[in-house]
Amino acid sequence: MIRIKVPGGDISPSQLEKIANLSESFSIGSAHVSTRQNIQLHWVQLEDVSEVFRGLAEVGLTSREACGNTIRNVMCSHFAGVCPNEPFDTTPYAKAIARFFLRNPICQNLPRKFKFNFSCCPEHGYVRIADVGLVPTIRDGIRGFRVYLGGGLGAASFIGHLLEEFTPESRLLSTSIATIRLYDRLGNRENLARNRMRYLVSEIGWEKFRELLLKERILVEATISIPTRDTFEGFLKATEAASTNPSAIPISTIGKKKKLPVINSEPNDTPYGRWLHTNVVAQKQSGFYSVYISLGAGDITSSQLRVLADCIREFSLEKKARTNPQQNFLIRYIKTDQLPRVFQRLSGSGLGNPGANTIVSTVGCSGTTSCNLAITNSHRLAKEIQSKFLELNVDKDNDFADSTIKISGCPNSCGQHEVATIGFYGGASRIGTSMVPIYTMLFAGSTGEEGELGKAVMRVPAKKVLEVVLKIIDVFKKERKSGEKLNEWIHKLSTGNGTSEVKTLEDMKKILLPIIELPAFTSAPDFYKDYGTDTNFVAKTARGECAA
User: Fold this and answer.
1) Could you tell me which of 548, 299, 281, 326 has the C-alpha nearest to residue 420?
2) CA-CA distance, 357 to 397, in Å (whole number)?
3) CA dist., res. 411 & res. 278, Å (int)
4) Could you give the CA distance from residue 331 to residue 481 in angstroms, rounded to a whole number?
5) CA neighbor of 537 nearest in space, from 410, 449, 452, 429
6) How many Å apart are CA 159 and CA 453, to the nearest integer?
């Protein structure tokens, strides 16, 4: 597997076309969008890797430090620059951080991988589950950030801690360097299972870590050289200059402190109507919209990549697309009158599925299709759920907007199951003498600045997951209050504040227990097999690199 870094998720048509060509020449004719905005090529022969690297370099892409004990792909909200609630566009800052630390000597041999996540506003972003999460803010006319440290997902997950109420942009670099230096010096280099920064923060305590960090930042600011600071400022200015000029586009009347709206439309039975209802989002720039391209668990073929590139060139003012953590693409700055033509072009190549921003857009890591660490085929399960939801027209129901299903093939959380409305992570269990692929189900995870980790509910056999999800939806429709969305209802259950007959997670568990019972192996052997295989299930893992 070759992981291609896409800083901020920002990618151009020529880059998409290059990836398409490389995939056809050296991979399997398709690419995979990960939950951290990377793009991955699988099944590349070792002797072909150098040719892929050369091809990527020709269009300004790299796989450098996309893996290993370094700073991974720097994430940025795909709404940055178009969100009505953002104080300023964080894209240039994310890209400047990525450029500055790439091949930087201070982060070439960290105790383990290190992640930066930028949001555009308190709602959009994964800032609480990163080593460094940054939410933009302005105080007294000065740009800055609320910086969260020590978050992350995995076998043991933690929500990040707020460093201080306001970190001015002039201290972004020194705060970042101080955090990396402190982790490099104190991080656990012996125990592979506990060497992320979140474990260091947990073990020494947040207050102690914060005290050490603030002292370290003073040292950094006292010793940082002018050329070093100028280098970072140069990266920042270059990125800002290359961005779409927002001053040339009038801001709409959506206003501040409003939820980023989907275009004003009601779903209808036409494919275009369904797509318009869920996949088209109004920007803060008047008369412009962003369009989601809903993928199946992040998969896109080479021919589809070329169609996507053509659409960007023809219809997007900024001539770029963004990858997002839901494993989809977003094309921005599209004029209203172009939307029918965009849909026609996308749907002609299988890219016109509705369901973005709803529970239909199911996330699944690569699972056992390519990952050595995976236990179950989360990738195939995500596609099965998405296909069933589309068949049932779930995307037409507004009650499922803003809800998510995320699936990981193991506890390591590459599918980000712990911040999903309904999350699953793969495992194995023995029933009688037979092994069964099984998932632990979690409820009420969420993202954003108020993000929370989901709570474990029960274990569900792989072939029963879809039935369980449909039963949850059925119970929700009977129990919910008028106007209540699925994610809101599930959050109430997680806090024991449900209404009617289902008030707690235990009440839901009792309803689901009869569904998850499996028949004997001799009478129904398919229940003991994983998706995507006709052989009996075997829990087999090996040493490998995480899938995101």
Assistant:
1) 326
2) 12
3) 31
4) 35
5) 429
6) 7
Rounded distance between C-alpha atoms, residue 371 and residue 36, angstroms: 16
Which amino acid, 182? L
Q: What is the pLDDT of residue 264?
A: 56
Give tens-digit pLDDT for 300-356.
Answer: 999 999 999 999 999 999 999 999 999 999 999 999 999 999 999 999 999 999 999
Token digits of residue 527: 């229940």
Instruction: Report the C-alpha gap between 345 and 412 in whole angstroms.
Output: 38
Q: Identify the residue whose tokens are 């302005």.
A: 138
The structure's pTM equals 0.94
Beta-bridge mates of residue 439: 426, 460
Reference 294, options 268, 275, 318; nearest CA is 275
User: Helix, strand or coil for residue 280?
Assistant: strand
Mean pLDDT rounded to a whole number for the chain? 94
**And the tokens for 489?**
């209802």
Closest alpha carbon to 202 in 180, 181, 215, 183: 183
Q: Using one digit for the tens of pLDDT, what is the confidence trace for 265-296? A: 566 789 999 999 999 999 999 999 999 999 99
Give the Cα separation of 156 and 324 in Å (integer). 24
User: CA dihedral defined by 280, 305, 77, 410, rounded to 10 degrees?
Assistant: 110
Total residue count of the chain as it appears in this document? 548
Sign for the pseudo-dihedral over CA of 376, 159, 494, 258: negative
Above pLDDT 90, what percent of the chain? 89
How far is it, in rounded angstroms, from Cα 535 to Cα 474? Answer: 32
